[in-house]
Specification:
heterodimer, A: mainly alpha, B: 306 residues, mainly alpha, Yip1_dom (chain A), Yip1/4-like (chain A), transmembrane (chain A), transmembrane helix (chain A), Protein YIPF (chain A)
């Protein structure tokens, strides 16, 4: 009789131990990590995709990022309650906007000795440190938004004010006068309201309900200061 | 106020009365370990001496110290530690601002609004708003004053923002630091019943600066008399808030030192407001003759001055 038949007739521990004696010596020691890879048929495709962003042409990379930035600009211009700005945040858009604004707002080098409007560095510092301070404030008050998400939203919502700056620059090419000033005032006020509405639409939900006003007020102050700098810009 | 105070004590008094009436009855009261001895002490005191009660805060200073100790338990390098300084709701901030605008002689600002919970939100953002209010109003008033002149070219003087920020933030942080150090030193010499923590002093100073925001905006009006009246009003409101806050902390002390402290506080406050007015706002000059294209209000102002 084979061992197996004997086992089936008399299933005793004794036999089992004899049969599987060798097996019990095998144990998996703790320092051998048990891991492996599950290969799926699609795997070769994924590998190609991973390395292709490294090998793709520069134009593809830039266009992809520009498209993402442009999509977010559209979200700011037509603010609805959506999560796109928060979900895939990036800081390219705020950088572009801030540099454009600072370049247009800086005083010309002619009167840099006397007092004048802000320098490039001053505008840059106000925008970025203002955004950082507002973000820290909202986090300290107990908001559940991440640091960079908040920076992204605040930076993107400067877009209406940058548009206002461009319009003011164009309007200033015409003759100076009270009408000129009224037009600029109107444009700046409209864009300021647009910025506030856009940023509130994105940021308000992340604040605790009884502290919403405390978190929104610094945003108001921030955009007010930027609007003031745009409104009082005088070309040389 | 007397009714509320009596009601509070009466609540606990009921339990004590029933316990006295029926010694056999078991009364279950859930209270903290430090609280039961103060009930019996509170009962006779609740009927009289309420003024001292409100000003000194003797009875629950132990409680608030315990609470304060329990609150800030995170180490100072964690984010949660700093979150405890921003633990205020919107209505609390509004209440504190209202308290700083309406100083009532019997009420101590710290005791009433802040004792449980000093915050850094108010001081920081009130100072930030004040900096921009002064800079913007200064530029605007200069623009309006020189409006008719042909030779004047308006430039937004951005340097003023940096200077205003330095002055205001230095005042709001260094003066409380000096005052706190001074009060600690006097506390070691003379046992004062009331002592304030550094954050509470920063809080009082921050909220007392709120009155200057509408004052700075109204300083745009280019009339000397109007400006000085505004200075007087703002100074009296915020000066009285500060004086009434710090008087209980120094009145146990030597009479002359107490008076000198209060006078110094008010003097520094005066210096701040007058200095800001003088530096950021040009004097509305009445001596230059307006040109033919000047606005009519300037001619009226010139006529008034002469």
């Amino acid at each position: 009789m084979s061992d197996l038949q004997r086992l089936m007739m008399e299933p005793t521990d004794h036999h089992a131990q004899a049969l599987f004696a060798g097996l019990s010596d095998i144990s998996i020691s703790q320092d051998i990590p048990v891991e492996g890879e599950i290969t799926i048929p699609m795997r070769s495709h994924i590998r190609e995709f991973d390395s292709s962003t490294l090998n793709e042409s520069v134009q593809n990379t830039i266009m992809r990022d520009l498209k993402a930035v442009g999509k977010k600009f559209m979200h700011v211009l037509y603010p609805r309650k959506s999560n796109t700005l928060l979900r895939d945040w990036d800081l390219w858009g705020p950088l572009i906007l801030c540099v454009t604004l600072a370049l247009m707002l800086q005083r010309s080098s002619v009167d840099s000795e006397k007092d004048g409007g802000p320098q490039f560095a001053e505008v840059f510092v106000i925008v970025w440190f203002g955004a950082v301070t507002i973000t820290l404030n909202s986090k300290l008050l107990g908001g559940n938004i991440s640091f960079f998400q908040s920076l992204c939203v605040l930076g993107y919502c400067i877009l209406p004010l940058t548009v206002a700056m461009l319009v003011c620059r164009l309007v200033l090419l015409a003759e100076q006068g009270p009408i000129n000033f009224m037009v600029r005032l109107f444009v700046v006020i409209v864009m300021f309201t647009w910025s506030i509405v856009a940023s509130t639409a994105f940021l308000a939900d992340s604040q605790p309900p009884n502290r919403k006003a405390l978190a929104i007020y610094p945003v108001f102050l921030f955009y007010f200061v930027i609007s003031w700098m745009i409104l009082t810009f005088t070309p040389q | 106020m007397a009714a509320v105070g009596d009601l509070q004590f009466e609540e606990f008094g009921n339990a004590a009365a029933t316990a006295a009436e029926n010694p056999g009855a078991t009364t279950i009261s859930i209270e903290g370990p430090g609280e039961s001895p103060t009930h019996q002490a509170g009962l006779p005191r609740g009927s009289g001496g309420e003024e001292d009660d409100e000003l000194l805060g003797n009875d629950d200073s132990d409680k608030t110290e315990l609470l304060a100790g329990q609150k800030k338990s995170s180490p100072f390098w964690t984010f949660e530690y700093y979150q405890t300084f921003f633990d205020v709701d919107t209505y609390q901030v509004f209440d504190r601002i209202k308290g700083s605008l309406l100083p009532i002689p019997g009420k101590n600002f710290v005791r009433l609004y802040i004792r449980s919970n000093p915050d850094l939100y108010g001081p920081f953002w009130i100072c930030a708003t004040l900096v921009f209010a002064i800079a913007i109003s200064g530029n605007l008033s200069n623009f309006l004053i020189h409006l008719g002149e042909k030779t004047y070219h308006y430039v937004p003087e951005f340097r003023k923002v940096s200077i205003a920020a330095t002055i205001i933030y230095a005042y709001a942080w260094l003066v409380p630091l000096a005052l706190w150090g001074f009060l600690m030193w006097r506390n070691s010499k003379v046992m004062n019943i009331v002592s304030y923590s550094f954050l509470e002093i920063v809080c009082v100073y921050g909220y007392s600066l709120f009155i200057y925001i509408p004052t700075a905006v109204l300083w745009i009006i280019p009339q000397k008399a109007v400006r000085w009246i505004l200075v007087m009003i703002a100074l009296s409101v915020s000066g009285s808030v500060l004086a009434m806050t710090f008087w209980p902390a120094v009145r146990e002390d030597n009479r002359r030192i107490a008076l000198a402290t209060i006078v110094t506080i008010v003097l520094l406050h005066t210096l701040l407001s007058v200095g800001c007015l003088a530096y950021f706002f040009d004097a509305p000059e009445m001596d230059h003759l307006p040109t033919a294209t000047a606005a009519p209000n300037q001619t009226v102002a010139a006529a008034k001055a002469s």
